[in-house]
Amino acid sequence: MPSTPQVRPKPLIASPVTRRTLLKAGGTLLLSVFAPMSAMAAQILAVRVWPADDYTRVTLENDSILKATHFIVKDPERLVIDIEGLELNPTLKGLVAKIQSNDPYIKQVRVGQNRPNVVRLVFDLKEEVRPQLFTLPPAGSYNHRLIFDLYPVQEQDLIAQMIEKGDWSSDPGKPLMSDTHTPPPALPLPESGKPPVAVAPVTPILPDVKPNLKPEQRPEARPLPGQKVVRMITVALDPGHGGEDPGASGSRGSREKDVVLAIAKRLKTKLELQPNMRVMLTRDADFFVPLGMRVEKARKVQADLFVSIHADAFVQPTARGSSVFVLSEKGASSSAARWLADKENQADLIGGVNVKSHDKQLASVLLDLSTTAQINDSMKLGSAVLREIGGINRLHKGSVEQAGFAVLKAPDIPSILIETAFISNPEEEAKLTDNAYQDKMADAIVTGIKNYFAKNPPLAKSRMT
Known about the structure:
Elements: H1 19-39, E1 44-50, E2 56-62, E3 67-73, E4 78-84, H2 90-93, H3 95-98, E5 106-115, E6 118-125, E7 129-136, E8 144-152, H4 158-165, E9 233-239, H5 256-271, E10 277-281, H6 291-300, E11 305-312, E12 323-327, H7 335-344, H8 347-351, H9 362-369, H10 372-389, E13 401-403, E14 415-422, H11 426-432, H12 435-455
Parallel strand pairs: 9-10, 9-11, 11-14, 12-13
Antiparallel strand pairs: 1-2, 2-8, 3-4, 4-6, 5-6, 7-8, 12-14
């Protein structure tokens, strides 16, 4: 039998290995490894909708930065948004059920895979809107966020809105305040039977130089002795946080934004029972208002006072007590006040502000315009309110504190920030969610405001509204 010829295998590399050959082989390997990764779509982690008269916000929280484009379709009004690098998942489909029937601007939403890696959202609108789309980097407990804000085309008239939502008493024969400086009525003792806590006098931290105000910004002269001022007094109440920004949280799950809104609504009702007094809430529902916009709202309604309401938190649950703060332009009155101001001033990062449309100069301009007179009046208001709060709760510090709170920088409105209690303290968290305590807190603030106006009558205004 003839023998089978042997076949010698050829070498795998017939020519010498070159640098170019290795680079080409390595490039092919890298492409094969990373191609599946680039094809992976972003994941939607959560969807949230915050409807309000001011605007409706839709939030898509995701694990990476998303790119979106939008356009408006007429007859009927629709907003179409295409999001790239995204595959439809159950979380995103859940957006449909998040739209509420009482949403002022969105009737319904349709969600679908428009083409590979592109999801299309179609919002059927109740009226024409001015949309803003922007992204937010991770902040607080949130990952990346894609935000759609739907604003009305016609800017809301805050004074008309305040009149429509107000329920105040107007009796020209019974002026709430006059410059006759009649002493305030004797106040009832708190249930404990102890007199209100005495508030230590504080020398305010004031600027050395008073800014040169424009003529329209100069303080108006107070009325002559014996001359009464009878007009509507406007109080701006500012429940802190809201919407995407929950504020501080208690161990039982209470959220600062909910507690302070409840107290602010009680306070509004009680203030509007006073003759010739009306109230504007910077927010009356669960939505976010940027810090600068809160001040701007107060100025638009020519507020006589600005009262921001919060519930404090600290790393140690033993911290307790109520506090009142006013603005400082030259440093905080304590390290705790500085820490708190820094924390509150970060609200815009958590709540989410469109930096392209936000007036970055607003805060610095307001700070430059803040006057010695405004801080002095704020100190008087703060002391009057703190004295009454001391009758219903332990005070964290027995004097008004000062720090650079952005929300207190209205140059022409006495402004205070009230920390009603420490929500991080389990005992005080229980108080903050108790209807009776909320009522007492509102009553104390009303009495403090009345006592302030009894000694500091409101200025006459050129335009009565």
